[in-house]
Amino acid sequence: MDDVVYDRAGRGEPLVLIHGIGHRRQAWAPVFPLLTPHRDVIAVDLPGFGESPEPSGGYGIEPALVMFKQLFADLGLDRPHVAGNSLGGLLSLALGQAGLVRSVTASSPAGLWNRRQKLYAIAALRAHRSLAQRTPPHVVRRIAATAAGRRALTGMIVGRPELQTPDAVVADARALATAPGFEPTAAQSRGDFRFTGPVTGVPVTVAWAERDRILARPRVADLRKVAPHGAFRLLPGCGHVPMNDDPELVARVLLDGSR
Question: How many other β-carbons are positioned within 10 Å of the β-carbon of residue 135?
């Protein structure tokens, strides 16, 4: 199996955390210590992102399901709980549909879009990556040193940029700029790709960020088609990547969803 890099700590039932496109496992750092007293937490770098090498089996949902099935076996996890953000939310829903996990918590999951929304989301993320690639690291660090600079750099992604640390902003920008998996993963959305589910047989929570500027919040009726028996939560004041905006709220949603 590809060498997937992960952080693991805590006690209790296993909970696997999956980040979004262009991000890394450290996206979960603000909530990680809030979860470990209650769960055996495993935060992974998806293949081609963070410190994980590119996948030998290619990109897409099916290769990801194969990878996670093998990872779960290697780590001795029997149908763990899983939670994901954005791309990670989509993969979490797919894992639930495949019957590989015991619960799913998806925050602002990708794939629940119409064509116009998809084109906007991919274009916005590519523009964010282009900015990270064109801005020298020393300039990013100088801009990130102020709250106003952090808003300029990350305001499309998070709801409360001033809460981020300059070091995290710099590291996230580098990860986004250099991730070899970004373009192959974005290319998977070509055509009319949508995740329609249904995800049944496991508890599902779909949480949507109130200030999500990347993905439009679906109607509850559409969410019901994807997760007929799901629970739906709004994350007030949070942006597309909500973990740093309100760690206590996100941790509570994750713990409630993984009971």
Answer: 16
